Amino acid sequence: MPNGYTRDYVYVEDVVEANRLVSEEAVNTVIHISSEEEIAILEMLKKYCDDY
């Protein structure tokens, strides 16, 4: 792992909207809410530090 661990970050508003939509339709269903984009924590930290 050259850039360390990774995470999938999702905007809170997107999660709220997904939950709202699912609550109208799905019953006893597992729903995976993600951006499907893996981001290395160290990569994100380097970008943040370079910006400031």
Automatic annotation (TrEMBL):
Gene3D superfamilies noted in UniProt: NAD(P)-binding Rossmann-like Domain
Stored InterPro entries: NAD(P)-bd_dom_sf (IPR036291)
SUPFAM superfamilies named among the record's database cross-references: NAD(P)-binding Rossmann-fold domains
Domain of life: Bacteria
Listed name of the protein: UDP-glucose 4-epimerase
Annotated organism of origin: Listeria grandensis
